[in-house]
């Protein structure tokens, strides 16, 4: 039987409340904006508009401005940087993701399972991708580059904010006729 460590769980939840999806999360739908008006922004997991709004709409008004997005990402990066050296090690990066994943499982009343284990393994793979310099240090500059691409990709209508007026991205057709 596994034991529950409340100190570890509280630390993980605190980090989860502050840290981004430096990586993608587990697939849990976000709380609809109308129901979440008085709740703080929190990692929603997954991809798509609901996850983006759930993760970055701090004031729960249904709109994510670039300033709001950048502020939350910076807060989360700082919270994940547990040793205060200004970069995230692979362990810090994965711990942040695991904190969000644990929160999602807790919210769903689920125990960690094979999918949970796979998600943790994938977080290690993602670290190797986001750490472009391949030096074991995920920097704010690397995070900013990801943030720029992510926000631009979510702001599909190009109006400078992400909200329900942003149509879903269209998948690009392959050039071979498939």
TrEMBL record:
Signal peptide residues on this chain, from the entry's feature table: 1-23
UniProt feature, compositional bias: Basic and acidic residues: 138-152, 161-178
InterPro entries linked: EF-hand-dom_pair, EF_Hand_1_Ca_BS, EF_hand_dom
GO MF annotation list: calcium ion binding
Region of interest called Disordered, as start-end residue ranges on this chain: 28-48, 138-178
Keywords for the protein's UniProt record, in alphabetical order: Signal
Transmembrane segments: none
Sequence ranges assigned to domain EF-hand in this UniProt record: 68-103
Name under which the protein is recorded: EF-hand domain-containing protein
Organism: Oxalicibacterium flavum
């Amino acid at each position: 039987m596994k034991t529950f460590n409340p100190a570890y769980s509280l630390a993980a939840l605190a980090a989860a409340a502050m840290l981004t999806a430096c990586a993608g999360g587990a697939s849990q739908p976000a709380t609809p904006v109308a129901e979440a008006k008085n709740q703080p922004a929190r990692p929603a997991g997954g991809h798509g508009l609901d996850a983006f709004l759930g993760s970055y709409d701090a004031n729960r008004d249904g709109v994510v401005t670039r300033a709001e997005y950048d502020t939350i990402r910076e807060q989360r990066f700082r919270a994940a940087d547990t040793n205060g050296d200004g970069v995230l090690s692979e362990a810090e990066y994965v711990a942040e993701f695991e904190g969000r994943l644990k929160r999602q499982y807790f919210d769903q009343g689920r125990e960690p399972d094979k999918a949970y284990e796979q998600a943790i393994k994938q977080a290690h793979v993602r670290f190797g991708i986001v750490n472009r310099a391949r030096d074991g240090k995920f920097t704010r500059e690397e995070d900013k580059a990801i943030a720029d691409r992510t926000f631009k990709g979510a702001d599909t209508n190009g109006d400078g904010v992400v909200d329900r007026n942003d149509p879903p991205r269209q998948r690009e057709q392959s050039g071979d006729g498939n």
